[in-house]
Design brief:
This protein has 326 residues and is an alpha/beta fold. The protein is built from 11 helices and 8 strands. The strands form 2 sheets. Strands 2-1-3-4 form a 4-stranded parallel sheet, sandwiched between helices. Strands 6-5-7-8 form a 4-stranded parallel sheet, with helices on both faces. Strand 3, helix 4 and strand 4 form a beta-alpha-beta unit. The longest helix is centred in the middle third of the chain and has 25 residues. It is globular, with a radius of gyration of 19 Å. The N terminus is likely disordered.
């Protein structure tokens, strides 16, 4: 079978970043709104951005997040209050094209420091997987549509699921913080170095843990893991492509059943924020197991871990079990 590689667009990454900057550890749910504190006020678009702001900013930063825990970030609509808060912040951290509502609000806001995570690493096109089940003709038509709209939609925004690329984004965020808040630049640099060590350790754990496996193919209901698959020599086969809510065609289901037999696939992964119905239907029809692979778009009480590193470690265990790690 063909290994499907997916790349994330700069726009998508930016959007994700926009979503990602959330509540800082220094700032609880009842913390002051952005712009109203004596700290460096950062608005993060969603959890992966929030985590970076917290880790790098430490005690000097007040972080508010636009995407609440349990909210599907792709569909986020902003309230007037959130838009106003953003205008009062010192910085906004987001991933362009992941959350169109965030991109629009940021473009119209007067925030001095706008940090687009998509510009801090290289986004890739992981093969337009969301169009594969429509056949080549449909994919060609869609490609033409996208080209006419600027060709940005095919880039994969889920770049934070590759610890190496996420570390590149972290480095860029730290530099932006240092420039925007020079009084605390030394601390931002030290915090960023500590985070880089954590992410390097995670990368090593994945490399070692997935080196020898019975199969390299895994099924998921959302094509969020293209970067992770590419980094560690795996093949992600997505039931639904990049849109977690779309339904696969009967032809696509049949194709996946045949592939499961051919490639020794044991497990269909689903995620916590999206319905598991499609994954469970495919698993039942094909005699496969189901398990959770978390795309880390938000942390909830259902998450297998309380922060980015802990959930990524849980994802590694789930992949090792599904792939038959030796």
């Amino acid at each position: 079978m063909n290994v499907r590689r997916r790349r994330i667009s700069g726009i998508a990454v930016t959007a994700a970043t926009a979503l990602g900057l959330g509540t800082l550890s220094a700032c609880s749910s009842d913390s002051s709104a952005a712009g109203n504190t004596d700290k460096f006020d950062v608005v993060a678009s969603f959890y992966p951005m929030e985590y970076l702001a917290e880790q790098i900013g430490g005690d000097h930063v007040n972080v508010t997040t636009l995407t609440e825990p349990g909210q599907e970030p792709h569909d986020l609509e902003l309230s007037a209050k959130q838009t106003a808060q953003m205008g009062e912040a010192d910085a906004v951290l987001y991933l362009k094209s992941l959350q169109p509502a965030v991109d629009e609000a940021i473009a119209q806001s007067g925030v001095k420091t706008k940090i687009d995570a998509a510009t801090l690493t290289k986004l890739e096109d992981h093969g337009n997987v969301e169009h594969d089940h429509g056949g080549e003709e449909h994919a060609d038509e869609h490609a033409e549509e996208e080209h006419s709209e600027g060709g940005e939609h095919s880039l994969d925004p889920h770049v934070w699921l590759d610890p190496v690329k996420y570390a590149e984004i972290a480095e860029g965020v730290a530099k932006s913080f240092e420039k925007a808040d020079p009084d605390h630049a030394d601390d931002y640099r030290k915090n960023a170095e500590a985070l880089a060590k954590k992410l390097s350790g995670l990368d090593t754990a994945y490399k070692d843990g997935l080196k020898n496996t019975a199969t390299k193919v895994f099924f998921t209901n959302h094509a969020a893991f293209g970067y992770l698959a590419e980094r560690y020599g795996l093949t992600q086969e997505a039931i639904n492509g990049l849109d977690p809510e779309s339904e696969p065609s009967p032809a696509r289901i049949k194709e996946l059943q045949e592939e499961a037999k051919a490639d020794g696939v044991t497990t269909v992964f689903y995620e916590t924020l999206v319905s598991d119905k499609t994954a469970k239907t495919l698993a039942k029809d094909a005699g496969l197991k189901t398990d959770v692979l978390d795309p880390l778009e938000g942390i909830t009480d259902k998450s297998k871990g309380d922060d980015y590193v802990a959930v990524m470690e849980s994802n590694l265990k789930a992949l090792q079990a599904a792939l038959g790690a030796k």
